[in-house]
Design brief:
The complex is a heterodimer of chains A (245) and B (163). Chain A has 245 residues and is mostly beta strands. Chain A contains two helices and ten strands, in the order αβαβββββββββ. Chain A has an eight-stranded antiparallel β-barrel with strand order 1-2-3-4-5-6-7-10. A two-stranded antiparallel ribbon of chain A has the order 8-9. In chain A, strand 2 and strand 3 form a beta hairpin. Chain B has 163 residues and is mainly beta. Chain B has one helix and ten strands, in the order H-E-E-E-E-E-E-E-E-E-E. In chain B, a hairpin with an 8-residue loop joins strand 6 and strand 7. In chain B, the strands form two sheets. In chain B, strands 1, 2, 5, 9 and 10 form a five-stranded mixed β-sheet that branches. Chain B has a five-stranded antiparallel β-sheet with strand order 4-3-6-7-8, with no helix packed on it. Classes of the chains: A mainly beta (245), B mainly beta (163). Chains A and B meet through strand 5, strand 6, strand 7 and strand 10 of A and helix 1, strand 7 and strand 8 of B.
Chain lengths: 245, 163
């Protein structure tokens, strides 16, 4: 912020300075001195996909998922953003096996806190999202929990399905974005989130939510991350001026 | 840049260590059947069973490794059946006075979700008991279900046996 303020003051003083100079030194010969440069910054729609989810789909036989995402730069540092995805995950717990699958969407914005060198458009950003998922869970089988072992374990194959589940959460993101090729970005970010409301399956549990990940019984917070590639379609350019030392 | 990477790594590390996948001892489990033994001739008085042991009928294995001398016992019920038939033996190691009785516990098992690490436990609804022996000399003289006929926990006795 200091840097921006300096730039601003510099531009104003430059303008005013030359104005007053113009009055005061009418006779002096103009001397051109380069003390700032300008650059046309690109504004546009950025469209991308998460890479970690298809990679995990290939490596983890219990997981299938994808996520597409987009953002749009509206001011110098503010980027409204959206993510839409689908995930299908089988998980083995100590006493039961289950599945969770469904779609999700996240709406919000990222705010860039990084001051770039002129000509560069990288980001360190913080983001806030409202996320929601509609999904179903399936309980494949379970073994009745019994501390006593006189009788053999009671294993049951049930394939019980719990439909029409939904969850709503707020998500905080922090990440970095680097322009690796012209208009092509790679980014890595981490997520911390908290459920606002959700409906619970009868006589079962919210174990894993698409887009939210694991739901911890002893904590209202969830955690996630993403690694994505995106391409910016430039729509307009705005001039940015920066002084040079 | 380094600080942000550090923050991301911290969050990811938190994600991997926040697993609480242990079913702790204090979680409710599938309850055992709790039986109290009373004196048939003086129904308000507890009367211990001597050299008591139990096994499921047709099973080789006794439930207790060592015979019990007690006024209260806890035995498991089958969760995958609507009933469990036990053979209750007293004075097990005293051949001439040994006595046995077959007793059937009838119920509707119902599974209740506990949590992620423990999974499901069973409780028993519509609990009922039948002494199967026609033998008039059976050591079990009378039985009583003192409370409601649901077995949820092991806090109090589900069955009184008078002998």
């Amino acid at each position: 912020m200091m840097k921006k303020a300096h730039i601003c003051i510099f531009i104003i003083s430059l303008f005013l300075g030359s104005f007053f100079n113009g009055f005061g030194q009418v006779q002096s010969s103009p001397e051109i001195q380069i003390d700032s440069i300008s650059y046309m910054e690109r504004y546009g729609v950025r469209i991308g996909a998460d890479l970690s989810k298809p990679i995990r789909t290939l490596l983890d036989k219990d997981y299938q998922g994808f996520e597409i995402k987009g953002d749009f730069r509206i001011t110098n540092n503010l980027y409204p953003a959206v993510e839409i995805g689908y995930e299908d995950f089988d998980f083995d717990e100590n006493n039961f096996d289950a599945n969770s699958k469904g779609g999700y969407a996240k709406l919000g914005a990222n705010y860039n806190v990084y001051s770039n060198w002129i000509g560069m458009q990288n980001e360190i950003y913080v983001g806030l999202r409202y996320g929601f998922a509609t999904y179903s869970e399936t309980l494949y089988n379970y073994t009745v929990y019994d501390k006593d072992h006189y009788f053999p374990p009671d294993y049951k194959e049930v394939n019980q399905k719990y439909n029409n589940l939904n969850a709503h959460w707020v998500e905080f993101q922090v990440g970095i974005k680097a322009e690796v090729l012209h208009n092509l970005y790679l980014s890595l970010h981490a997520q911390v989130k908290r459920i606002i409301t959700s409906n619970e399956p009868k006589n079962f549990d919210i174990l894993w939510i698409p887009g939210y990940n694991r739901n911890y019984a002893d904590s209202p917070f969830g955690i996630g991350w993403g690694y994505s590639v995106s391409y910016m379609i430039p729509l307009l350019k705005k001039e940015r001026v920066q002084k040079i030392d | 840049m380094k600080k942000v990477l550090f923050l991301i790594v911290i969050i990811l590390a938190l994600a991997s260590c926040q697993h609480n996948d242990i079913c702790t001892e204090n979680q409710p489990t599938t309850p055992k059947l709790v039986i109290k033994f009373y004196n048939y001739n003086n129904p308000n008085q507890l009367k211990p069973v001597e050299e008591f042991n139990a096994r499921e009928v047709n099973s080789e294995n006794y439930y207790y490794e060592n015979n019990r001398n007690d006024t209260l016992i806890k035995i498991p019920l089958r969760t995958n059946h609507q009933s469990t038939v036990y053979e209750f033996i007293i004075n097990k190691d005293s051949m001439d006075i040994q006595q046995s009785a077959s007793i059937e516990f009838i119920y509707t098992p119902e599974e209740i979700y506990i949590n992620r690490p423990c999974g499901f436990r069973a409780v028993f609804e519509n609990f009922d008991v039948q002494v199967l022996d026609n033998n008039p000399d059976t050591w079990i003289k009378a039985i009583e279900i003192p409370h409601e006929n649901t077995i949820n926990d092991e806090e109090s006795a589900h069955l009184y046996i008078y002998h």
